[in-house]
Design goal:
Elements (H helix, E strand, L loop, with lengths): L9 H11 L4 H14 L4 H8 L3 H14 L18 H11 L15 H10 L8 H10 L18 H8 L2
Length: 167
């Protein structure tokens, strides 16, 4: 028995044609196979045109026939809830601008584990891993870079001498 998408209303066709132009590959393929099926193409022809296996094509067509347009856009799994909201992220960045020695850390540089521990102690989040800290910093538009040790001296002529000795 041949499997085809149910006939589309003009509004649905317009929406599916819009979804075909999606930058998301999954959404594009689903919408395209519904349009191809609406043109009377067989599952085998759709498989060749779209590059999916016949089981995926059949499942998508059945789901579309049963549930409609809502099945075409790619939905990402919900995953874990964000550990920090926008205010928490801003507080984390503010914390990053505070010297670690203020919190009893014997280093002049923040490490992700130290920052995560201090953020938990400050009440920004109950659970916060070093990876989450790095991700939240990246999400705020900053980048996590390895700390660099800079040589400094109390000598007032240090910069002049340093420049001359490296020349």
């Amino acid at each position: 028995m041949a499997l085809h998408a149910r006939p589309l209303t003009p509004e649905e066709r317009q929406e599916v044609e819009k979804l075909v132009r999606s930058s998301d590959t999954v959404t594009h393929r689903r919408a395209r196979l519904v349009l191809l099926s609406g043109e009377g193409r067989t599952v085998a022809e759709i498989v060749a045109a779209v590059g999916l296996c016949d089981r995926s094509v059949r499942n998508t067509l059945r789901r579309f026939n049963r549930e409609g347009l809502a099945t075409l856009p790619h939905r990402f799994p919900p995953g874990a809830a964000r550990r920090l909201d926008a205010a928490g992220r801003a507080a984390l960045i503010e914390l990053l601008h505070t010297p670690p020695t203020t919190f009893g850390i014997e280093s002049a540089f923040w490490t992700a584990p130290d920052l995560a521990r201090v953020a938990r102690e400050q009440g920004l989040a109950e659970q916060l891993s070093p990876d989450t800290v790095r991700e939240e910093i990246r999400r705020s538009g900053k980048s996590w870079k390895r700390a660099k040790r800079w040589t400094t001296s109390p000598d007032p002529d240090y910069q002049r001498k340093k420049g001359r000795s490296s020349a």
